[in-house]
Amino acid sequence: MKKVLVLYKSKTGFSQRYAEWIAGDLQCDLVAFSEFEMETLSDYGLIIYGAGLYAGQIRGLGKIKRWMKDSPNKTWVVFATGATPTRESYEELIFKTNFRQGEVRPAHFFYLISGINYEKMGVFDRLLMKFFSSMDARKRKAPRSAKQTSIDLTNRDYLTDLLRYVRLKAR
Ligand SMILES: Cc1cc2nc3c(=O)[nH]c(=O)nc-3n(C[C@H](O)[C@H](O)[C@H](O)COP(=O)(O)O)c2cc1C
C-alpha cells in the first residue's frame, strides 16, 4: 500500500474543502501547502495536489511540477477547483493548458466544480472579477451588473472518479 498525502492551496476555501473530503474518505494525511515540510515528501508514495483555478491557471503548480520532475517514482494526482460549471470539456482544456506536451504530467488530473466566494476573496481578486465580468458583458453587449453574488456548487459526488482512481493506484 502506498502512503497517500493530500496537499492543497486554497484562497477562499473551496480546494481546502475538497482536500478535506478526500483525506477524510481515504483516511490519509492532509497538509496545507504553506505548512508542508519538504523533508516529509519521502514518506509518501502517492501525492494528491489540489488548488483553485485563477485565469485558467492552477495555483501553485510551478513548484509541484518541479517536485514531480524530481520524484518520478511517486504517483502524482492533481485536481483543480473552479467556478466553470461544465466538467469534461473544461477538464480537458485545463489539463492541456496547464500541462503542455513534453512537460512533466501527473498520473491523472481532475477538474472539480466549486463556485465563487466573494466574502472570502481579497480586494485584488474582487476587482479582477469585476473587470472580467464587465469585459464579458461588453462582449455579449449586455448591461453591466454591479452585483457580485457568491455561489457554492461543491458536491462530494464530484469526487467519485478521483477516489476510485486513487484507491486503485495506492494499492
Ligand atoms: C481572479 C479569479 C479568477 C478565476 N479564474 C477562474 C477560471 O479561470 N476558471 C474557473 O473555472 N474558475 C475561476 N475562478 C474561480 C475559482 O477558481 C474558484 O472559486 C476556486 O474554487 C477557488 O479555489 P480556492 O478558494 O481553493 O483558492 C476565478 C476566481 C477568481 C477570484
Topology readout:
Elements: E1 4-9, H1 14-26, E2 29-32, E3 46-54, E4 57-58, H2 61-70, E5 75-82, H3 88-98, E6 108-113, E7 115-116, H4 123-139, E8 151-152, H5 160-169
Parallel strand pairs: 1-2, 1-3, 3-5, 5-6
Antiparallel strand pairs: 3-4, 7-8
The chain binds flavin mononucleotide.
The site of flavin mononucleotide has 23 residues, from helix 1, strand 3, strand 5, strand 7 and helix 4.
The proportion of strand residues reads 15-25%
Mean pLDDT: 96
Q: Level of helix content?
A: 25-40%
Q: Describe the biggest sheet?
A: 6 strands, mixed
The count of β-strands is 8
The CATH superfamily name is Flavodoxin domain
Number of helices: 5
Number of domains: 1
Low-confidence runs (pLDDT<50, min 5 residues)?
none
* CATH domain class: Alpha Beta
Radius of gyration: 17 Å
Structural class: alpha/beta
What ligands are attached or bound here? flavin mononucleotide
Shape: elongated
How widely separated are the two ends?
Answer: 5 Å
Describe the structure.
This protein has 171 residues and is α/β, with parallel strands linked by helices. It has one domain (4-114, 153-169): Rossmann fold (3-Layer(aba) Sandwich), CATH 3.40.50.360. The chain has 5 helices and 8 strands, in the order E-H-E-E-E-H-E-H-E-E-H-E-H. The protein has helices at 14-26, 61-70, 88-98, 123-139, 160-169, and strands at residues 4-9, 29-32, 46-54, 57-58, 75-82, 108-113, 115-116, 151-152. Strands 1, 2, 3, 4, 5 and 6 form a 6-stranded mixed sheet that branches. Strands 7-8 form a two-stranded antiparallel ribbon. The longest helix is centred in the last third of the chain and has 17 residues, at 123-139. The chain is elongated. It starts with a strand and ends with a helix. The structure holds flavin mononucleotide. Flavin mononucleotide binds at residues 10-16, 52-56, 81-84, 114-116, 121, 125, 128-129.
